[in-house]
Write a structure and sequence with these properties.
4 helices, about 45% helix, elongated
């Protein structure tokens, strides 16, 4: 019976070492992903549900629009229920428009247009801020929920559902 050569033993040890190392890396990555998901789930409601936080958008304004920013109708409709402030955006890239509720604990809102998305005052204010940004930049409010060239079908039902639910929270 022949003895295994030293090179065969070294190759086997190398393969086992590589396999053990790869298994360790995979386990480490899986643990990191699990921790990240768990921490994200516990953090999201804290900042998203805080009605006292400022909601900010950057409004692109050309050189000819350098005068003071006048709040458009979607935000003016809130009256004294909100605080608004403006500042020059970093790098001269327009104007930052920030709004928040004066009374974060309120469940009532003034008489607002029905087309504002959302069910809570914070969601409705986010919708008004998005609409205001569009009005200031383009002069109109663009709506993805009512395209003129498509009709409701079973194929586009998931997109229609996601679009109608997206107005309350998410990115500005």
């Amino acid at each position: 019976m022949e003895q295994p050569r030293a090179t065969d033993q070294a190759g086997t040890k190398h393969k086992i070492g590589t396999l053990v190392g790869a298994t360790g890396v995979v386990a480490g990555v899986a643990t990191a992903v699990r921790r990240r998901i768990a921490s994200r789930d516990s953090l999201v409601p804290d900042w998203q549900d805080d009605p006292s936080r400022w909601m900010v958008v950057t409004v692109y304004r050309t050189g000819g629009d350098s005068g003071p920013l006048v709040l458009p109708e979607p935000l003016r409709a809130w009256g004294d229920s909100i605080e608004a402030r403006t500042a020059t955006a970093p790098g001269g890239r327009g104007t930052e428009l920030a709004v928040r509720l004066r009374d974060p604990q309120t469940d009532t809102v003034p008489d607002l247009p029905e087309e504002l998305d959302g069910t809570t005052p914070v969601q409705k204010l986010r919708s008004a801020l998005r609409r205001s940004k569009q009005l200031l930049e383009t002069g109109e409010v663009l709506r993805a929920t009512a395209p003129g060239t498509s009709e409701p079908t079973a194929l586009n039902a998931p997109l229609r559902a996601a679009t109608s639910a997206s107005g309350g929270e998410g990115r500005l």
